Amino acid sequence: MILHCSNAVGFLVSEPQWYSQVAGRFNLEPFDTLALRLKGDGRYYVSTLRTESWVGGPPGMDYNTWQAYIYAPKDEWCEVKVPFERYLPTWKGKILQTKSQMNPARIVSMSLSLTAEGGPLGVTNGYGQFKLELDWIKALRCMDNR
Predict the structure, then answer these.
(1) Backbone angles phi, psi at 128, to 5 degrees
(2) What's the pLDDT score for residue 131?
(3) What would the 3-class secondary structure string for 71-122 be?
(4) β-bridge pairing 128-140 and 33-39
């Protein structure tokens, strides 16, 4: 599966600032990794996958959110691979302490965002200008244990 994407330039004034979202229903069960070809501004971004909820929820909130940080090198195209096992369950940006595993057959949306806080220590984040170019997103099968 390949999604071709576009570019974003902006100014972060509140958190989170959603950059791009693709909605639909994606069955990525045959795969174990997302790959993104991107060029950025040297910041960390949040890759978010939403899946149909296993417990339900209020109307409009019947999904689970899984997030992983990705690095977008400054002015340099690169391919970033994010194994599904790196996506952690979250609620309103906070990591949930649960042993749940994401079901890649139930993905309903994907997004990239820039937040004012978070990411590994010492990284550039916070309010201000940002730039992220995204060429494509691919689903890959990289692990041999399937």
Answers:
(1) 135, -170
(2) 82
(3) EECECCCEEEEEEHHHCEEEECCEECCCCCCCCHHHEEEEEEEECCCCCCCC
(4) antiparallel
Per residue in 31-69, pLDDT (tens digit) is 999 999 999 888 888 899 989 876 655 555 678 889 998
User: Which tokens belong to 84?
Assistant: 């599904």
Task: Evaluate whether 34 touches 82 at the Cβ level (below 8 Å).
Answer: yes
pLDDT at 96: 86
Residues 6+ apart with CB under 8 A from 8: 19, 20, 130, 131, 132, 133, 134
What's the length of the chain? Answer: 146
- The C-alpha atoms of residue 34 and residue 47 are separated, in whole angstroms, by 10
Are 133 and 39 contacting, i.e. CB atoms less than 8 angstroms apart?
yes
pLDDT at position 97 over 80: yes
Judge if pTM exceeds 0.85: no
